[in-house]
Inverse folding.
Protein backbone atom coordinates (compact mmCIF):
# COMPACT_ATOMS: atom_id res chain seq x y z
CA UNK A 1 0.00 0.00 0.00
CA UNK A 2 1.41 3.36 -1.09
CA UNK A 3 1.98 6.03 1.58
CA UNK A 4 -0.12 9.20 1.08
CA UNK A 5 1.96 12.08 -0.27
CA UNK A 6 1.23 14.34 2.72
CA UNK A 7 2.60 11.89 5.29
CA UNK A 8 6.29 12.08 6.28
CA UNK A 9 8.62 9.21 5.50
CA UNK A 10 9.16 6.60 8.25
CA UNK A 11 12.79 7.62 8.61
CA UNK A 12 11.81 11.28 9.05
CA UNK A 13 9.31 10.21 11.72
CA UNK A 14 12.11 8.34 13.49
CA UNK A 15 14.28 11.45 13.36
CA UNK A 16 11.49 13.54 14.87
CA UNK A 17 11.03 10.94 17.62
CA UNK A 18 14.76 10.96 18.38
CA UNK A 19 14.70 14.76 18.46
CA UNK A 20 11.91 14.66 21.05
CA UNK A 21 13.72 12.10 23.19
CA UNK A 22 16.97 14.09 23.07
CA UNK A 23 15.12 17.24 24.14
CA UNK A 24 13.30 15.57 27.05
CA UNK A 25 15.93 12.97 28.01
CA UNK A 26 19.31 14.26 26.82
CA UNK A 27 22.35 12.09 27.37
CA UNK A 28 25.24 13.59 29.34
CA UNK A 29 28.34 12.67 31.28
CA UNK A 30 29.34 9.01 30.99
CA UNK A 31 26.26 8.29 28.90
CA UNK A 32 27.28 10.91 26.32
CA UNK A 33 30.70 9.29 26.06
CA UNK A 34 29.03 5.92 25.54
CA UNK A 35 26.87 7.32 22.73
CA UNK A 36 29.99 8.76 21.13
CA UNK A 37 31.76 5.39 21.24
CA UNK A 38 28.69 3.64 19.83
CA UNK A 39 28.45 6.20 17.03
CA UNK A 40 32.12 5.72 16.17
CA UNK A 41 31.66 1.94 16.12
CA UNK A 42 28.69 2.26 13.75
CA UNK A 43 30.65 4.59 11.48
CA UNK A 44 33.61 2.21 11.35
CA UNK A 45 31.27 -0.72 10.65
CA UNK A 46 29.50 1.28 7.95
CA UNK A 47 32.72 2.04 6.10
CA UNK A 48 33.93 -1.53 6.45
CA UNK A 49 30.72 -2.76 4.80
CA UNK A 50 30.97 -0.15 2.06
CA UNK A 51 34.53 -1.26 1.41
CA UNK A 52 33.42 -4.89 1.20
CA UNK A 53 30.57 -4.01 -1.16
CA UNK A 54 32.17 -1.62 -3.65
CA UNK A 55 34.24 -2.93 -6.53
CA UNK A 56 37.79 -1.72 -7.12
CA UNK A 57 36.65 -0.17 -10.41
CA UNK A 58 33.94 1.87 -8.65
CA UNK A 59 36.40 3.13 -6.02
CA UNK A 60 38.98 4.20 -8.63
CA UNK A 61 36.28 5.92 -10.71
CA UNK A 62 35.13 7.82 -7.61
CA UNK A 63 38.64 8.97 -6.78
CA UNK A 64 39.26 10.23 -10.32
CA UNK A 65 35.95 12.06 -10.72
CA UNK A 66 37.56 15.52 -10.61
CA UNK A 67 34.57 17.45 -12.00
CA UNK A 68 32.41 16.26 -9.12
CA UNK A 69 35.06 17.02 -6.49
CA UNK A 70 35.68 20.50 -7.91
CA UNK A 71 31.94 21.22 -7.77
CA UNK A 72 31.71 20.16 -4.11
CA UNK A 73 34.80 22.14 -3.04
CA UNK A 74 33.55 25.23 -4.90
CA UNK A 75 30.14 25.04 -3.21
CA UNK A 76 31.67 24.50 0.23
CA UNK A 77 34.38 27.16 0.22
CA UNK A 78 33.23 29.70 -2.41
CA UNK A 79 29.44 29.65 -2.77
CA UNK A 80 28.68 29.45 0.96
CA UNK A 81 31.00 32.35 1.96
CA UNK A 82 29.63 34.54 -0.86
CA UNK A 83 26.08 33.91 0.34
CA UNK A 84 27.06 34.57 3.96
CA UNK A 85 28.60 37.93 3.09
CA UNK A 86 25.69 38.86 0.81
CA UNK A 87 23.15 38.22 3.58
CA UNK A 88 25.16 40.05 6.24
CA UNK A 89 23.65 43.56 5.75
CA UNK A 90 20.15 42.08 6.01
CA UNK A 91 20.50 39.76 9.01
CA UNK A 92 23.37 41.04 11.17
CA UNK A 93 21.28 43.99 12.51
CA UNK A 94 18.58 41.49 13.51
CA UNK A 95 20.71 39.01 15.47
CA UNK A 96 23.81 41.03 16.36
CA UNK A 97 27.48 40.77 15.30
CA UNK A 98 28.40 37.85 17.57
CA UNK A 99 25.73 35.49 16.30
CA UNK A 100 26.30 36.56 12.71
CA UNK A 101 29.98 35.82 13.16
CA UNK A 102 28.76 32.30 13.91
CA UNK A 103 26.81 32.33 10.63
CA UNK A 104 29.96 33.31 8.74
CA UNK A 105 31.79 30.55 10.59
CA UNK A 106 29.18 28.06 9.31
CA UNK A 107 29.79 29.28 5.76
CA UNK A 108 33.56 28.75 6.13
CA UNK A 109 33.38 25.22 7.54
CA UNK A 110 34.11 22.08 5.48
CA UNK A 111 31.51 19.45 4.65
CA UNK A 112 30.53 16.60 6.93
CA UNK A 113 32.01 13.17 6.29
CA UNK A 114 29.86 10.58 8.03
CA UNK A 115 26.39 11.96 7.29
CA UNK A 116 27.24 13.11 3.74
CA UNK A 117 28.27 9.59 2.82
CA UNK A 118 25.42 7.99 4.74
CA UNK A 119 22.81 10.16 3.00
CA UNK A 120 24.47 9.53 -0.37
CA UNK A 121 24.19 5.81 0.29
CA UNK A 122 20.54 6.09 1.37
CA UNK A 123 19.79 8.10 -1.79
CA UNK A 124 21.49 5.47 -4.00
CA UNK A 125 24.19 7.94 -5.05
CA UNK A 126 27.87 7.69 -5.96
CA UNK A 127 29.29 6.56 -2.60
CA UNK A 128 32.99 6.30 -3.63
CA UNK A 129 32.92 9.85 -5.02
CA UNK A 130 31.12 11.09 -1.89
CA UNK A 131 33.78 9.50 0.31
CA UNK A 132 36.54 11.22 -1.62
CA UNK A 133 34.80 14.62 -1.77
CA UNK A 134 33.77 14.71 1.89
CA UNK A 135 37.22 13.64 3.09
CA UNK A 136 38.97 16.11 0.78
CA UNK A 137 36.69 18.89 2.01
CA UNK A 138 37.64 18.20 5.63
CA UNK A 139 41.35 18.10 4.87
CA UNK A 140 41.13 21.33 2.83
CA UNK A 141 39.18 22.94 5.65
CA UNK A 142 42.19 22.62 7.95
CA UNK A 143 43.76 25.53 6.06
CA UNK A 144 40.83 27.16 4.27
CA UNK A 145 38.43 27.63 7.19
CA UNK A 146 40.78 29.82 9.32
CA UNK A 147 41.78 31.78 6.21
CA UNK A 148 38.17 32.39 5.20
CA UNK A 149 37.22 33.48 8.72
CA UNK A 150 40.23 35.80 8.78
CA UNK A 151 39.10 37.34 5.49
CA UNK A 152 35.41 37.62 6.41
CA UNK A 153 35.55 38.52 10.08
CA UNK A 154 39.11 39.71 10.88
CA UNK A 155 39.91 36.82 13.24
CA UNK A 156 43.29 35.94 11.77
CA UNK A 157 45.07 36.10 15.15
CA UNK A 158 43.94 32.55 15.93
CA UNK A 159 44.40 31.08 12.49
CA UNK A 160 47.95 29.81 12.84
CA UNK A 161 47.20 27.91 16.04
CA UNK A 162 44.07 26.34 14.59
CA UNK A 163 45.75 24.74 11.63
CA UNK A 164 48.13 22.53 13.58
CA UNK A 165 45.57 21.25 16.09
CA UNK A 166 42.82 20.68 13.53
CA UNK A 167 45.16 18.90 11.14
CA UNK A 168 45.83 16.24 13.76
CA UNK A 169 42.21 15.89 14.88
CA UNK A 170 40.82 15.79 11.35
CA UNK A 171 43.47 13.48 9.94
CA UNK A 172 43.23 11.06 12.88
CA UNK A 173 39.44 10.94 12.59
CA UNK A 174 39.41 10.40 8.84
CA UNK A 175 42.13 7.75 8.90
CA UNK A 176 41.00 5.88 12.01
CA UNK A 177 37.22 5.89 11.55
CA UNK A 178 36.86 6.07 7.78
CA UNK A 179 39.91 5.13 5.73
CA UNK A 180 41.23 2.13 7.67
CA UNK A 181 37.83 0.37 7.98
CA UNK A 182 37.15 1.01 4.29
CA UNK A 183 40.55 -0.41 3.26
CA UNK A 184 39.95 -3.41 5.53
CA UNK A 185 36.60 -3.96 3.79
CA UNK A 186 38.26 -3.76 0.39
CA UNK A 187 40.82 -6.37 1.49
CA UNK A 188 38.07 -8.63 2.86
CA UNK A 189 35.92 -8.19 -0.25
CA UNK A 190 37.18 -11.38 -1.90
CA UNK A 191 35.88 -13.42 1.04
CA UNK A 192 32.75 -11.55 2.18
CA UNK A 193 31.84 -9.36 -0.81
CA UNK A 194 29.16 -11.72 -2.13
CA UNK A 195 27.64 -12.16 1.34
CA UNK A 196 27.46 -8.36 1.89
CA UNK A 197 25.84 -7.94 -1.54
CA UNK A 198 23.14 -10.45 -0.55
CA UNK A 199 22.47 -8.59 2.70
CA UNK A 200 22.17 -5.01 1.47
CA UNK A 201 19.72 -4.26 4.27
CA UNK A 202 22.66 -4.11 6.68
CA UNK A 203 24.04 -1.08 4.87
CA UNK A 204 20.70 0.70 5.09
CA UNK A 205 20.51 -0.14 8.80
CA UNK A 206 24.02 1.19 9.44
CA UNK A 207 23.39 4.31 7.32
CA UNK A 208 20.17 5.25 9.05
CA UNK A 209 21.30 4.11 12.51
CA UNK A 210 24.40 6.29 12.38
CA UNK A 211 22.29 9.32 11.40
CA UNK A 212 19.88 8.70 14.28
CA UNK A 213 22.80 8.52 16.73
CA UNK A 214 24.27 11.76 15.38
CA UNK A 215 20.91 13.52 15.75
CA UNK A 216 20.45 12.28 19.31
CA UNK A 217 23.99 13.27 20.29
CA UNK A 218 23.75 16.74 18.70
CA UNK A 219 20.36 17.59 20.19
CA UNK A 220 21.40 16.22 23.58
CA UNK A 221 24.51 18.39 23.60
CA UNK A 222 22.49 21.47 22.68
CA UNK A 223 19.95 20.75 25.43
CA UNK A 224 22.55 20.06 28.13
CA UNK A 225 24.54 23.18 27.27
CA UNK A 226 21.37 25.27 27.33
CA UNK A 227 22.29 26.88 24.02
CA UNK A 228 18.65 27.37 23.11
CA UNK A 229 18.05 29.24 26.37
CA UNK A 230 20.76 31.82 25.72
CA UNK A 231 18.79 33.65 23.05
CA UNK A 232 15.15 34.53 22.54
CA UNK A 233 12.75 32.42 20.52
CA UNK A 234 12.61 35.20 17.95
CA UNK A 235 16.38 35.12 17.47
CA UNK A 236 16.33 31.33 17.22
CA UNK A 237 13.64 31.66 14.58
CA UNK A 238 15.79 34.09 12.59
CA UNK A 239 18.79 31.73 12.87
CA UNK A 240 16.61 28.88 11.64
CA UNK A 241 15.45 31.07 8.74
CA UNK A 242 19.04 31.98 7.81
CA UNK A 243 20.06 28.31 7.95
CA UNK A 244 17.10 27.27 5.81
CA UNK A 245 17.84 30.01 3.27
CA UNK A 246 21.50 29.02 2.99
CA UNK A 247 20.69 25.31 2.76
CA UNK A 248 17.92 25.56 0.18
CA UNK A 249 19.73 28.07 -2.03
CA UNK A 250 22.89 25.94 -2.12
CA UNK A 251 20.97 22.70 -2.63
CA UNK A 252 18.85 24.23 -5.38
CA UNK A 253 21.87 25.65 -7.20
CA UNK A 254 23.72 22.32 -6.92
CA UNK A 255 20.76 20.41 -8.38
CA UNK A 256 20.45 22.88 -11.27
CA UNK A 257 24.20 22.88 -11.90
CA UNK A 258 24.46 19.07 -11.76
CA UNK A 259 21.69 18.64 -14.32
CA UNK A 260 22.91 21.44 -16.55
CA UNK A 261 26.43 19.96 -16.61
CA UNK A 262 25.13 16.48 -17.42
CA UNK A 263 26.07 14.70 -14.19
CA UNK A 264 24.36 11.35 -13.64
CA UNK A 265 21.67 10.94 -10.98
CA UNK A 266 24.17 9.11 -8.77
CA UNK A 267 26.67 11.97 -9.10
CA UNK A 268 23.95 14.55 -8.43
CA UNK A 269 23.11 12.83 -5.14
CA UNK A 270 26.75 12.95 -4.01
CA UNK A 271 27.14 16.59 -5.09
CA UNK A 272 23.97 17.74 -3.32
CA UNK A 273 24.77 16.05 0.00
CA UNK A 274 28.52 16.71 0.10
CA UNK A 275 28.29 20.27 -1.21
CA UNK A 276 25.47 21.54 1.00
CA UNK A 277 26.43 20.20 4.42
CA UNK A 278 28.62 21.64 7.16
CA UNK A 279 30.48 19.75 9.85
CA UNK A 280 29.61 20.08 13.53
CA UNK A 281 32.23 17.54 14.67
CA UNK A 282 35.14 19.66 13.40
CA UNK A 283 33.35 22.97 13.80
CA UNK A 284 33.00 23.01 17.58
CA UNK A 285 36.67 22.28 18.45
CA UNK A 286 37.82 24.65 15.70
CA UNK A 287 35.62 27.42 17.14
CA UNK A 288 37.17 26.93 20.58
CA UNK A 289 40.57 27.68 19.03
CA UNK A 290 39.65 30.41 16.55
CA UNK A 291 37.43 32.34 18.95
CA UNK A 292 39.28 31.81 22.23
CA UNK A 293 38.31 34.49 24.72
CA UNK A 294 35.07 35.29 22.91
CA UNK A 295 31.50 34.08 23.44
CA UNK A 296 32.12 30.66 21.90
CA UNK A 297 28.75 29.32 23.07
CA UNK A 298 26.92 31.93 21.00
CA UNK A 299 29.27 31.62 18.02
CA UNK A 300 28.68 27.86 17.74
CA UNK A 301 24.90 28.21 18.09
CA UNK A 302 24.40 28.82 14.33
CA UNK A 303 26.27 25.61 13.44
CA UNK A 304 24.18 23.70 15.99
CA UNK A 305 21.00 25.01 14.35
CA UNK A 306 22.29 24.48 10.80
CA UNK A 307 23.57 20.99 11.57
CA UNK A 308 20.26 19.80 12.96
CA UNK A 309 18.27 21.37 10.12
CA UNK A 310 20.49 19.80 7.47
CA UNK A 311 20.02 16.36 9.02
CA UNK A 312 16.23 16.66 8.96
CA UNK A 313 16.07 18.09 5.43
CA UNK A 314 18.63 15.69 3.96
CA UNK A 315 16.84 12.69 5.48
CA UNK A 316 13.70 13.54 3.53
CA UNK A 317 15.58 14.35 0.31
CA UNK A 318 17.62 11.14 0.54
CA UNK A 319 14.42 9.09 0.71
CA UNK A 320 13.08 10.93 -2.34
CA UNK A 321 16.25 10.15 -4.27
CA UNK A 322 15.94 6.50 -3.20
CA UNK A 323 12.36 6.33 -4.48
CA UNK A 324 13.43 7.95 -7.74
CA UNK A 325 16.18 5.36 -8.14
CA UNK A 326 13.70 2.54 -7.50
CA UNK A 327 11.35 3.97 -10.14
CA UNK A 328 14.18 4.21 -12.67
CA UNK A 329 15.12 0.58 -12.03
CA UNK A 330 11.51 -0.53 -12.37
CA UNK A 331 10.89 1.40 -15.60
CA UNK A 332 12.97 -0.88 -17.91
CA UNK A 333 11.21 -3.97 -16.52
CA UNK A 334 7.83 -2.39 -17.27
CA UNK A 335 8.96 -1.49 -20.78
CA UNK A 336 10.36 -4.96 -21.51
CA UNK A 337 7.27 -6.85 -20.34
CA UNK A 338 4.92 -5.72 -23.17
CA UNK A 339 7.67 -6.30 -25.73
CA UNK A 340 8.16 -9.85 -24.48
CA UNK A 341 4.49 -10.61 -25.08
CA UNK A 342 4.56 -9.50 -28.75
Amino acid sequence: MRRPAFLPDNFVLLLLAVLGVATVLPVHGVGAQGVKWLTNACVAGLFFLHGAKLSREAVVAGLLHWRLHLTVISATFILFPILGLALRPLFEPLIGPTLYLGVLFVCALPSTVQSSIAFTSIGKGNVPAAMCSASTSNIAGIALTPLLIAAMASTSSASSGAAGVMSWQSAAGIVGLLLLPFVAGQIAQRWIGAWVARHRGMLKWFDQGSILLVVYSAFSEATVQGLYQQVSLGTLGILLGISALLLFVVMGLLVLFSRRMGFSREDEVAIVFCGSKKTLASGVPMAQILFAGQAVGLIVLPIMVFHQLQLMVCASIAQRYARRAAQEQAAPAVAVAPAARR
About this structure: The two ends are 31 Å apart (CA to CA).
